[in-house]
Structures are given as C-alpha cells and as structure tokens.
Amino acid sequence: MHHADGHGASSQTTPTVTSGLSASPLDAAALAESVRRDDCGAVVVFEGTVRSPNHGHLVEALEYEAWDDKAPEQIRSIVAEVIDKHALGAALAVHRTGRVHVGESAVVVVAVGVHRGSAFAGAEELINRVKAEAWIWKKEIRVDGEVWVEGCEQ
Amino acid sequence: MKVLYFARARELAGTKTEDTDEFDGLTVAEVLAELSLRFGPEFATLVERSTIMVDDSIVTSDRYDEHSVGGELAILPPVSGGDGPVGDHHHHSDHGPSTGPLRVAILTVSDRASAGEYQDLTRPALAELIESRIDAKVITTAVVADVLDSIAATVSGWCDDDLGDNGGPAQLVITNGGTGLSDRDVTPEAIRTVLDVEAPGLGEVMRAAGLAKTPLASLSRQTAGRRKATIVVCVPGSVKAAIESVEAIADVLPHACSLAAQVTSVEPSTESSAKVGS
Q1: What angle do CA B146, B152, B154 make, to 5 degrees?
Q2: CATH number for the domain including B224?
Q3: Distance from CA of A123 to the nearest CA of B (A)
C-alpha cells in the first residue's frame, strides 16, 4: 500500500504553530517544519514578501492592521476548509501584523499533501482566500507618503 | 452601542472603538449617515466601499434601512487582497496637454541588458511610475548598448518620427542608464548631441532629490532638455535612483511637455489658439 490516506494516522504530535496572526517576523522554514509529515510527499510553501517598487512607488514598508478578535479565527477556518477540500495532510497560514519591511514575509502558507497536486492547489487556495477574506488591511509606507491599499493585483 | 473602526476608517474617525448610546434605535443607514456627516466626505465614500457588520453578521447595503443597530457595529473597509475597487487613487491632477495622455518612450541604456545578460527592471518600474503619476502612456520602449551613436539615433528617432502607432513622435523620452562616471557612461554626451536646448534645472532637481538620501548622488549625471517638441530626460540605471529622479520632476513634466509642444511647429497638431510669436 503506497497510497497513504491524507487524513490517516500520522507520526505528528500536536502542531507547534497555530494558524492566525503574528506580530513578529515569520520564519517560513520553521513553519513548514512544524507541519510536515512522513506520510505526505509534498510540502508547498508560499511566502508573500513586501516588494518595492510597487506601481512605480518606492515602498519602505507595509503596515498591517487586523481585526484581532476575528482574523485569527477566520484564518483557522479557511485552513480547515482547505485541508478538507483538498484532502491535505496538514496546512498552515500565518499573516503578519504591524510594520513589515521590504523583503520580509508578510504572509506564509504551507500546504502538505500526499502528492504535489493537492499541495499546490491547496497552497494557492489558502493564500487567495486569506488575502481576499481575512479582515486584514495594509497601508503602504512610501518614500513619498502613505496609502491604504484596497484590492489586489495578483 | 459600540462602533468599531478599522484601517482608513479608524484614521478618519480618530479612534478604534467608540461606545455611545446616541445611535440606539437607529437603522444602519441612519448611523452611517450620521457618522459620514461627522467624519466628512472621505469617510462617506469609504463607507460606501466598506462591509458593515452588526453583531457578527454582515449587513448588505440593500438592508441598511430595515436593520437597526444592536450591540456592535463594525465598519470594515475593503481588505488589501480582496477584489474590491482598486485602491491606488490617482490624486495628482495633471495640467498637461489636453490632447490625451502624454506619449512616452523609454530607452534602457545598458551593455548587459542589450546583450540579454540580465533583465532590466528599471524600465517597467519607470513605466508604472510615469503612468500612475501623470496622465501619460508608454507607447514604446527599447534597449541599446552604452554606445553614443546608438543612443543618439534612437532618441532622435523617437523625437522626430512617428512611434509606429500613427500618433506622432514621443512627447517625453526617458532614458535610464549610462549616467555614471565610467568610460562606458555616455548617455549625457549622446543626448547633448541631439538636444536643441538643455534644461539643466531638471538635472539639478533630480540630483538634489538624490542628495537627500546619499552624498553619492552628486556623482550622478542626470540631464534633460528638449529636442523639437519632445522633452528628453536621462536618469540613472538603478531602479531606486531612476524612480527617485523621475518622482522629483514628475509634477513639472506635464508643463515642460506642453511648453515643448508650443515651441516648434514641427507637428502642426495645435491648429487652434496657439499663435507662436515672430
């Protein structure tokens, strides 16, 4: 039997990280490590990093504001739904709050699947849903001013 | 009742939360109207784009009238990754030529980029900047090596001839690269061979903007001028320095271009009022 069941027994103990918000820098490798499992052959990690320039404006940092009472729970239910939908072995999504400088990660999602197809699809859906649905706002701190960014250019 | 404000709404309201009993018994529509009066037109338009939640459920705008507020009303502007209206508002009015967007051509001057050895990121960044800062459209771009004749030929061609879309020559040419001090840096020299007049002030303003960041900006040789009806601007090759340079002069570029358009009658496009002297 080389087709392990994605929901099956795992050597995994309790996850060391929970999905949600983080006010401190994200370590994508550590996040991936915390959810990988031996019965899954695919780990897809997506890091959304702060970019400059954006639309021709030099960006110094992004300032993320979240609805602290709601966003973590929202992200966790998105993760649970995506795990279920794509039969993932595990998944994780953590979004930064506060000031995130150019080059740093603003969001990390990890999808762990038996095979790469589900892991890629799961990771993509995770990041798309977290960005579109979670109550998180960003302000672009530019060299020439500040602007709240609404809507996405993917 | 408690009102929760987030992001820009929080900034405009000047507070994150507000406990008040003055809205008791009012509908969502009435509360939002009251808050919009209090916090002004920007708040009012932001509210139209926002999601309203009352006691943890979303109230759609068609139900603002029937729904009276309960314990908590949250005003949630569009999130950054959502599919709401795109947020990068163009708040710079342009007083440029009234004949549509400024026609822009961008030339990357780089041995390495012209040899295909690396991807020039400055040109797309400049294109985005110029199109978002002023009413402009990038019509064409090119890459040439750091060779004086190639630079001069490309730039003068863009100033003199139609850009290939039957819209006439460029009104603004931006070059990036070749403004340093090495013997391969020949862009300013090349440009001077094709300019009718130089506009040293533009170079000074661009360097001054750079100097605010680093003393090394004094070694940069940004230059600008006019050929026929076209403004030509030369900025450095790095994304950062190029963007800073164009940012520094963006507000005067439309005016510079409209002055250039009046100077010569090479393109007798302005058949209306402009009666040029002598």
Answers
A1: 90
A2: 3.40.980.10
A3: 16
Q: Are B104 and B73 in contact (CB under 8 A)?
A: no
Identify whether residues B9 and B108 lie together within a single domain.
Answer: no
Task: Answer yes or no: do B125 and B221 share one domain.
Answer: yes
Chain B's closest residue to A54, CA to CA, is B125
B16/A contact by beta carbon, under 8 A: no
Kindly list the distances between the CA atom of residue B45 and the CA atoms of B37, B168, B214, in Å, as whole numbers in the listed order: 11, 40, 40
Rounded to an integer, the average pLDDT of A27-39 is: 95
> What ipTM describes this predicted complex?
0.85
What is the DSSP secondary-structure string of B206-272? HHHHHHTT-GGGGG---EEEEETTEEEEEE-SSHHHHHHHHHHHTTTHHHHHHHHHHH--SSTT--S
- Claim to verify: residue B144 and residue B193 sit in the same structural domain: yes
Q: Nearest by CB to B85, from A138, A139, A151: name it.
A: A151
* Residue in the structure block whose two tokens are 């459209």: B137
Taking phi first (over 0 means left), then psi (-120 to 50 degrees means alpha), and beta for anything else, what does residue B155 get?
A: alpha
Number of domains in chain B: 2
In a domain, B97, yes or no: no
Q: Compute how many other C-beta atoms are within 10 angstroms of the C-beta atom of residue B190.
A: 24
Question: From the CA of A4, how many Å to the nearest CA of chain B?
Answer: 35
Helix (H) / strand (E) containing B43: helix B41-49
Does pTM top 0.80 for this prediction? Answer: no
Tell whether B72 and B125 lie within a shared domain: no
CA distance readout (Å), A73 to A34, A136, B78? 19, 12, 19
Q: Are A110 and A91 in contact (CB under 8 A)?
A: yes
User: How high is the mean pLDDT of chain B?
Assistant: 86
Determine the structural domain holding residue B6 and report its residue range. 2-76
Same domain, B42 and B134: no
Report chain A's C-alpha Rg in angstroms.
16
Instruction: Point out which residues pair with A65 in neighbouring strands.
Output: A137
pLDDT band at A152 (very low <50, low <70, confident <90, very high): low
Q: What is the pLDDT of residues A43-63, one digit of tens each?
A: 999 999 999 988 778 899 999
Examine the pLDDT at B91 and tell me if it is beyond 60. Answer: no
Residues of chain B found within 8 Å of residue A133, distances taken between Cβ atoms: 79, 82
